[in-house]
Design brief:
heterodimer, A: mainly alpha, ABC transporter involved in vitamin B12 uptake, BtuC, 2 strands, globular, B: mainly alpha, 15 helices, about 0% strand
Chain lengths: ~290, ~350
């Protein structure tokens, strides 16, 4: 039962981060490898607003969420906008370089000590009992519920709202969408904003659970196989991929060896690439694009 | 593409077409370069010598990556994994069997070839992004294998290796290392230039351009892709072996994703599709942190920010990469060619059409 709780929390983390990967890829066909660093930026943002709005934790959370959205839009407007149309390698390397820049800048701005935003917010991370044998932390529970809420909201957004349909159209055929009158730059900026928002949320919740450390970026990198296993342009696939990878990781850590934790997502990824490179629910034609 | 020339140059024999250096100017520059390279360690101080050694060491791996990504067009994000493979082979053979360098060097090359084959297999089905991701995944597997060895054998901080020795004389002096690394670097460059002129090199350029057309022309695409991976990874593995001996120390933490990104940066910043680009990119990437440090002390920040030097390096490196990707897609080689053209064509700016 405890294993199930652990798997649920880890899967929620991976799902929340990989929906960022999927959103950006689906809409603009760019693979953003800076997501781990953007996630950490969200966590640091929470720590900053927590100390800024000391005594008003809800305001701090709302402000840092809004900031994450803004940062995503800015990243697109200032950087990724110029890389549209360039080769795959150039766009991916730009995001990698952005990640490196952000990591250096974060150490410069916030120092290297571990920070605990939850304490600065003034809330406690209670341990909640599930049944007789399992416990889950409050932050973990919020993670699971929050991920479900985010995914439900995204499904509704993409399916029924105007901007959501525009995003799907731009993802399917940018040229036709542009000729139809859809503002591609606006759609891409919105995608980046939403992706950074969800990534920032994941970062904030992980920071509430475990504090902000440099190892947070590796979690972002490990969520990437989850997005790929499910299919890089499918939200449902990201959810399923996260469950598979989180399940494999927790089970193998518990029963085989704790050292495997960093490698298991990539094992699963390799297996998937050999068998079905476009993932469980991805569209097949992506494979042949160079 | 032939380099711009100040005056007309006409070949009168077939051998001249195949020659590496033809004109007297080229031969003169080559002689000056050779003299400079040989005299350098005798006049340079210890710090400059160390810098030169680092540049030469990185250049071997950078040229290998340029062959794979720049010429054959196979994106590989697993470079640090190959370096780790070579370094760990050396470390394991030394620690377990006490092997001398004339055993570990070929062993590293063999291990590199085998791992290169494994890295190359996904390229037969995948392209571009997915290929990069598969090489990334394989990189993590190799690093994990290295970490497993370290923990199982109790060398959790890393494996210490003695410097290579022949008949009692061990290679420790930086000047001796300079000549060894210079020889390795020159060998790699000459080998690569020759390989690119051969049938294999042409096959690589063909699959980089248009894979379908290459296949239609009768080029064996499978063989071209696999040979690109195997050759590049063998050279990189040998570079890893040299790494291990030069540092005297092998540990899995040294082979992070950031190391791969630095090597990819040498290729991108140098300019894709040019061996000279790999060398220029190497010089840039290796000297960049030192330049930042010098800039900081010149600006007077050195004492206040010395604890943050690593973060500043990181941020500046990211910024430099972004600047090159946005504003200078042809890299340092593009700048070099523009400067060359400016000098050779003055007072004209453009080359005449058709030349």
């Amino acid at each position: 039962m405890q294993l199930a709780a652990n798997i649920a929390v880890l899967a929620a983390i991976y799902a929340l981060i990989s929906c960022g990967y999927v959103l950006i890829y689906r809409v603009s066909r760019v693979l953003s490898l800076a997501h781990g660093e953007l996630m950490m930026l969200g966590a640091y943002g929470l720590a900053a607003t927590a100390s800024l709005f000391a005594g008003q934790p809800l305001v701090a959370v709302a402000v840092s969420a809004a900031l994450a959205l803004l940062v995503g839009v800015l990243v697109y407007a200032l950087l990724m906008r110029r890389m549209t149309g360039e080769s795959v390698l150039a766009a991916v390397l730009t995001t990698i370089a952005l990640g490196i820049l952000l990591r250096g800048a974060m150490v410069l701005a916030f120092g290297t000590q571990t920070r605990y935003p939850l304490r600065e917010l003034g809330w406690a991370n209670a341990s909640i009992a599930l049944g007789e044998s399992a416990r889950i932390s409050a932050a973990g529970l919020v993670l699971v519920l929050g991920t479900a809420a985010v995914y439900a909201a995204l499904f509704v957004f993409l399916r029924s709202t105007r901007w959501g349909i525009r995003m799907r159209a731009a993802g399917q055929n940018p040229l036709l969408a542009a000729q139809r009158g859809i503002r591609l730059h606006g759609v891409y900026a919105l995608a980046w904003g939403l992706a950074t928002f969800t990534g920032g949320m994941a970062g904030m919740l992980i920071a509430c659970d475990a504090g902000i450390e440099a190892t947070m970026v590796t979690i972002g990198l490990k969520a990437f196989p989850a997005a790929l296993v499910g299919g890089l342009d499918s939200l449902l696939g990201a959810l399923l991929g996260s469950l598979i990878i989180a399940g494999a990781e927790v089970l193998l850590i518990s029963y085989v060896s704790p050292l495997l934790s960093d490698v298991v997502p990539f094992f699963v990824l390799l297996a998937m690439l050999v068998v079905r490179p476009w993932g469980l629910f991805g569209t097949r034609e992506e494979l042949d694009r160079v | 593409m032939s380099p711009p020339r100040a005056s007309g140059h006409f070949r009168t024999r077939y051998e001249a077409d195949l020659a590496w250096v033809e004109t007297r100017t080229q031969k003169a520059w080559l002689a000056i370069l050779a003299v400079g390279l040989i005299v350098f360690p005798l006049v340079a101080g210890a710090f400059l010598l160390d810098l030169a050694n680092q540049v030469l060491l990185v250049s071997v791996g950078a040229v290998a990556l340029m062959l794979l990504t720049g010429f054959a067009g196979q994106i590989s994000l697993g470079h640090a994994g190959l370096l780790a493979a070579g370094a760990f082979t050396t470390g394991i053979l030394f620690k377990e069997f006490g092997s001398p360098f004339w055993v570990t060097l070929p062993a590293s090359a063999a291990v590199g070839a085998v791992i290169g084959l494994v890295f190359g297999l996904p390229s037969l089905r995948l392209r571009g992004l997915y290929l990069a991701v598969s090489t990334l995944a394989l990189h993590f597997l190799v690093i994990h294998a290295g970490q497993e060895y370290e923990t199982r054998r109790g060398h959790s901080t890393g494996v210490v290796i003695d410097p290579p020795s022949i008949a009692g004389w061990s290679l420790q002096d930086p000047r001796a290392w300079y000549f060894v690394l210079l020889a390795a670097s020159i060998a790699t460059v000459l080998f690569s230039l020759n390989l690119l002129r051969s049938k294999t090199g042409r096959a690589w350029r063909a699959i980089h351009g248009r894979e379908g057309v290459a296949a239609a022309l009768g080029i064996d695409v499978t063989w071209a892709k696999l040979s690109a991976f195997v050759v590049s990874c063998t050279i990189t593995s040998v570079a890893g072996c040299l790494f291990a001996y030069y540092r005297g120390f092998v540990s899995a933490e040294a082979f992070s994703l950031f190391l791969t990104i630095q090597y990819v940066a040498t290729v991108i910043i140098g300019g894709i599709g040019s061996i000279l680009g790999a060398l220029l990119g190497t010089v840039f990437v290796v000297l960049f942190p030192y330049a930042i440090e010098a800039l900081m002390s010149a600006l007077g920040f050195a004492d206040r920010l010395s604890s943050l030097i690593f973060a500043i390096n990181h941020a500046a490196f990211g910024l430099a990469m972004i600047a090159f990707l946005l504003f200078e897609p042809q890299g340092l080689v593009g700048i070099w060619r523009r400067v060359q053209a400016w000098f050779l064509l003055w007072p004209f700016k453009q080359r005449p059409l058709g030349k």
